[in-house]
Amino acid sequence: MDSGIFINWGLDWAWGLPLIVVTVVIHAYGLRLINKEVVITLSGAGRFRNLSTASIFAMGGTALSATVLHGLEGSIWAGAYRLLGALQDNKSAMLYSLSAMTSYGHANLYLEPRWQMMGALEALNGWILFGLTTAFLFTVMQRAWPRT
After folding, report:
1. Cα–Cα distances in angstroms (integers) from residue 33 to residues 8, 53, 111, 125, in the given order
2. Which of 39, 30, 95, 24 shows the shortest CA–CA distance to 66?
3. Alpha-carbon distance 42 to 62, whole Å?
4. What is the C-alpha to C-alpha distance for residues 104 and 95, in angstroms, rounded to an integer?
5. How far apart are CA 67 and CA 56, in angstroms?
6. Which of 11, 26, 53, 129 is most buried, by CB atoms within 10 Å?
7. Whether the Cβ atoms of residue 101 and residue 75 lie closer than 8 Å to each other
8. pLDDT 10s digit of each residue in the chain, 148 long?
C-alpha cells in the first residue's frame, strides 16, 4: 500500500477542514446580515403597494445575496487551489471550485492528483453551505408569505 497517499490526504484534510470552518462561519455571518435586510424590507412594506411586493423584493434580494455569498466562498477555495498549485489559472480554479461546491462536476477540470481529496472536501462543504441556505430561504419564505 502506498503510504504517500495518506500523507497527501493528510495535507488535503489539513487544508480542507479549516476552509470548511472558515466558509461556514462566513456563510452564517452573511446570512445574518441578509436576514437584517429582509427584516427591514418586510417591516417597510408600507413603502411598497402591498406586502406581496415587499415579499417579492425580499425573496429576490435574498436569493441574489445568497448566490453572491456562495460565489465568495467558492473564490476562497479557488484561491487555496491556486496557492497550492492544484490548478494552473484563476479561471480554472474558480470554475472547478463552483463545480465541486455545487456537485455539478461537468467541467473537464481536475485537481493535481495530490490534491484530489480536497475537491471532495469542497463538495462536502458545498452540501453544508447549501443546506444552510435552503433552511434560510425557507425561513424567509415563511416570513415573507405569512398565512393570513
Report:
1. 37, 21, 34, 21
2. 30
3. 12
4. 10
5. 17
6. 129
7. no
8. 455 555 667 999 999 999 999 999 999 999 999 999 999 888 875 565 566 788 888 899 999 999 999 999 999 999 999 999 999 999 999 999 999 999 887 778 999 889 999 999 999 999 999 999 999 999 999 988 875 4
